[in-house]
Amino acid sequence: MTRAHLVEIVAEHERILREIESTDANCIGPTLRSVYDGQEHGLFMEKLDGRIRNHDRDIEKMCNHHFQGFVDSITELLKVRAEAQKLKSQVTDTNQRLQDDGKGLVSCMDDLRRCRLQQRNIATTIDRLTHCLPVLEMYSKLQEQMRLKRYYPALRTLEQLEQTCLPRAGQYRFCSIMAENIPRVRTLIKDTAMSQLRDFLESIRKHSNKIGETAMKQVCPLSRPLSPPLSPGRRLRKEAGLGAATEVDGHGSSPVTEQDSGILDVEDDEDDEVPGAQELVDFSPVYCCLHIYTVLGAREEFENYYRKQRRKQARLVLQPHSNMHETLDGYRRFFNQIIGFFVVEDHILHTTQGLVNRAYVEELWELALSKTIAALRTHSSYCSDPDLVLDLKNLIVLFADTLQGYGFPVSQLFDMLLEMREQYGEILLKKWNLTFRQALDQDNYSPIPVATEEDYRQFSSQFPFQDPDLDKLPFPKKLPFSEFVPKVYCQLKEFIYACLKYSEDLHLSSTEVDDMIRKSTNLLLTRTLSHCLQYAIKKKNVGLAELVQLILNTTHLEASCVYLEGFISNITDVPPDTANTTKLYGTSTFKDARHAAEEEIYTNLNAKIDQFLQLADYDWTAAQGGGAPSDYLSDLIAFLCSTFSVFTHLPGKVAQTACMSACKHLASSLLRLLLQPDVRQVSLGAMQQFNNDVKECERFARTDPVPGFQGDTLLLAFSDLRQLLDLFIQWDWSTYLADYGRPTCRYLRVSPHTALVLLEKMKDTSRKGTMFAQFRKNERDKQKLIDTVVKQLRNLISAHQT
């Protein structure tokens, strides 16, 4: 082993020993292991023993150094023990005395401790109760509000209880129970508010008729003075009207019972002021529910539900009953329900913030307006009573004015009323058609007898008639027209009044009303009255006297048209000379009727003449004619004389035309009778009898049956017959043939064709030897002459045709 290696081993052992000395005994294992892992543990042990011996010597030195002090201490301690025993005895005595003396104090201290503990507990309890009492008071208030059904204040109390009072109270069982009940109470309030809203909606649906009726009473001009409907700027309910029912804050909400489901009980006392339509309704369920849902964060849900339900109710309200058109009450209920619906919506619009908006209400109104107009057009078309149509028009005007007072546009309703005006006019025309026909059927077609001045003034007040000549005559006297005239004139005025009644309150100008009345009156004159007059003129069995009276009646009615014009101008306050004013067509109507009556007179006269001619019984083969006219013709002449005597009141031209027409028809009918194909032969004797009848007709024409004819004008009607008969009786064929075609021809009115037909009839008689018996010796020459005349007549006819 080298020296250096030995030095290293010694240094290592020294380090290990220091480490053992300085290290805890529990941690020297690894150090000792490093010694036993090496080869010099023997040397180490020696080193260790040497170190131990050094430490023993140090310990011994230390003990020797302190031993004397220890002995001194023990000696002093022995001396102190006696004193300690004495001190102990004193301390024990003192302690005993203290114990005896402290027992009372300890008892007092225990009492004091318990007292202070109680005080602390009381203070703690007071503090806890201070936080709990508001909770209990708030909960008690909540229960009371729920009992009184003041749900919106209850919801506010619930919110304050949950957010403020319960967190301050701490964790108590009753607080936990209250906290658990809060959601259920909220749900109960929400459901109850919705139930009240449903009751409110159902109630206003049932009572919308009452609400609308009250609203219409407020604007009805025929009722006693009422307060006008509140304008949009004054839609907030008066404090006296709704009272606490509209106060929906936490302090003023009134309890809403099941009876208070939306309609307040209001007595219908005519002596008291009619309440406003909105004052009939308690809107607190709506306000309460709105605020409750707003607080609960479900306002949108509430708005959607409210609008959905009101739309459903609107559809129900706008469905009229199938028999609505039968009575005015049906229309009134329909209008009242619509007004009641929109009065409620209008109030909700102006007293809530956003529950319904203007667009929503306008949408509902547009729907209601279109449905209402469609229903009115459908149901009014079934109506045939003008009084009902007029009442319906007034009701529609009141309906429109009521809704217009609440700000709803109603121009379309007035447009529809103008459309209904045509229907009303047609119904009036039908009614007046029956009235006119009844007046015609009941008329006696005789001049009105007037016995006294009072009767005369009465008729003059009914019909504007002025006749100075008649006024000079003494009583009794007769008016020239029949009772039909004043009746028709009064009915015309009644018709104008009926038209005027419909035009009232339609917001039309005087000019428009005047034009409307005049057009309707023109329809009455030109269509209804004209048809009735035509009916009276054309009906069967109408006599000539009736036709004559009809002519006189229409003449006076025509003269009264100017008074009708003035009557219309007076009631419409529009001067008749205003530009573009419609003129009445009465003059033309009565003229047409008069002309029709005149034509009917001509036709009836001709028909009567034909009836008499059917009685004619000529013996066309008679050898000798009689000296007197035929009986049928005498009767006919007598009839014409009596008939024309009735024409004295007719205008001269009408009577002259009738007389001339009768004479012409008589002449042409006699000529046809002579030339009819059934008469195959005509003898000279028959010709003479026929000539006698024609002479009787000419005698009648010369008697001037109707004044006014100049000279022999009426005789011209028989000139064709006269020239024909003269030609054959005088047998003046040479003159006829020689002068034919000349203006100065004696037989200018005898046509070759007529002469040929009659000559053929006489030619057949001649061949049988019955006509020219007195010329038998010259029979051959006469027959030759007839053949020559026939041939020449045929040549004239052929030449005329070419």
UniProtKB/TrEMBL annotation:
<dbReference type="Pfam" id="PF20651">
    <property type="entry name" value="EXOC6_Sec15_N"/>
</dbReference>
<comment type="function">
    <text>Component of the exocyst complex involved in the docking of exocytic vesicles with fusion sites on the plasma membrane.</text>
</comment>
<dbReference type="InterPro" id="IPR048359">
    <property type="entry name" value="EXOC6_Sec15_N"/>
</dbReference>
<dbReference type="InterPro" id="IPR007225">
    <property type="entry name" value="EXOC6/Sec15"/>
</dbReference>
<dbReference type="InterPro" id="IPR046361">
    <property type="entry name" value="EXOC6/Sec15_C"/>
</dbReference>
<feature type="domain" description="Exocyst complex component EXOC6/Sec15 N-terminal">
    <location>
        <begin position="47"/>
        <end position="216"/>
    </location>
</feature>
<keyword id="KW-0268">Exocytosis</keyword>
<dbReference type="GO" id="GO:0005886">
    <property type="term" value="C:plasma membrane"/>
</dbReference>
<dbReference type="GO" id="GO:0000145">
    <property type="term" value="C:exocyst"/>
</dbReference>
<protein>
    <recommendedName>
        <fullName>Exocyst complex component</fullName>
    </recommendedName>
</protein>
<dbReference type="InterPro" id="IPR042044">
    <property type="entry name" value="EXOC6PINT-1/Sec15/Tip20_C_dom2"/>
</dbReference>
<dbReference type="GO" id="GO:0006893">
    <property type="term" value="P:Golgi to plasma membrane transport"/>
</dbReference>
<dbReference type="GO" id="GO:0006886">
    <property type="term" value="P:intracellular protein transport"/>
</dbReference>
<feature type="domain" description="Exocyst complex subunit EXOC6/Sec15 C-terminal">
    <location>
        <begin position="412"/>
        <end position="761"/>
    </location>
</feature>
<dbReference type="Pfam" id="PF04091">
    <property type="entry name" value="Sec15_C"/>
</dbReference>
<dbReference type="GO" id="GO:0090522">
    <property type="term" value="P:vesicle tethering involved in exocytosis"/>
</dbReference>
<comment type="similarity">
    <text>Belongs to the SEC15 family.</text>
</comment>
<keyword id="KW-0813">Transport</keyword>
<dbReference type="InterPro" id="IPR042045">
    <property type="entry name" value="EXOC6/Sec15_C_dom1"/>
</dbReference>
